[in-house]
Amino acid sequence: MRSKPECKTASLRTEMYADDIVSHCQSEAEVTALKDELNARFKACKLTLHPTKTQIVYCKDEDRTGNYSHTSFDFLGYTFRPRMSKNRRGKYFVNFSPAMSDKAAKLIRSKVKQWKWNLRPGDSLEDLASECNAKIRGWIAYYGRYYNSALVKVLEHIDYRLMLWATHKYKRLKGRPQKAKTWLNEVIHRDPALFAHWPQIQGNG
After folding, report:
1. How many CB atoms lie within 10 A of CB 78?
2. Cβ contacts of residue 55 below 8 Å, gap of 6+?
3. 180-201 burial by CB neighbour count: b if 16+ within 10 A, else e?
4. Residues 72-120: pLDDT tens digits?
5. Which residue in 86, 92, 77 sits closest to 139, CA to CA?
6. 58 Cβ contact partners less than 8 Å away, ≥ 6 residues apart
7. b vs e for 126-147, b when ≥16 Cβ sit within 10 Å of the residue's Cβ?
8. Cα(99)–Cα(83) distance, rounded to whole angstroms?
9. Is residue 96 within 8 Å of 61, Cβ to Cβ?
10. Greatest CA separation found in the chain?
11. Could you give the dihedral angle defined by the CA atoms of residues 61, 62, 65 and 68, in that order, rounded to the nearest 10 degrees?
12. How many CB atoms lie within 10 A of CB 156?
């Protein structure tokens, strides 16, 4: 009886969601073995690895200082790449870590724009908040776990849309963006929990 071929990469740690897969290798030898094994398995199924999406990424950080073509990748709405971090002693160092991807940030800005608040001057701030707070909490829960500053920049876009709404609702603010910003800051000071993202922004101010 023929024995099954040995799987040289069976012990590698792997994350998978739908058809997106990330495998962790400790050396170039493991990378080469994994790629050969995947090519063989896909070929047996009359499939091929995607020529551009299949990449070997070097997780560059404080300890891994080599130079390679690819040092970042996107996975589940996050971009993993070298970033400056601060340890408990306050010392800065380079860490390979995730933050909200540019693609995810662009998608959220697009969804906020689709709320079309500028066409709803008859609504109140409470109306707008009750409509969008559940969605905002979801974004914070998912994208706020790592490098929260990347998420805060996107959440600030919500405030920009609120200022535009105010310039359509109040005649005294029409064409006066600076006054609209002052008005919004006063509202935030008066009712800091009205919108779900306001405590998040204030905590990173």
Report:
1. 20
2. 70, 73
3. bbebbeebbeeeeeebbbbebb
4. 999 999 999 999 888 888 899 999 999 999 999 999 999 999 999 999 9
5. 77
6. 64, 66, 68, 70, 71
7. eebbeebeeebeebbeebbeeb
8. 9
9. yes
10. 87
11. 10
12. 12
The SS3 of residue 105 is: helix
Distance CA 105, CA 89 (A): 31
H or E, element range at 71: none
- Half-sphere exposure at residue 170, Cβ-oriented, CA atoms within 13 angstroms: 15
- Amino acid letter, 58: Y
Instruction: Read off the pLDDT of residues 135-163 as tens digits, 9 standing for 90 and up.
Output: 999 999 999 998 888 899 899 999 999 99
Backbone angles phi, psi at 17, to 5 degrees: -140, 115
Residue with tokens 């001057």: 121
* Residue-level length of the chain: 205
Amino acid at 126: E
Q: How far is CA 154 from CA 32, 37, 54, 86, 144, in A?
A: 39, 41, 29, 23, 11
In whole angstroms, what is the distance from residue 16 CA to residue 25 CA? 15
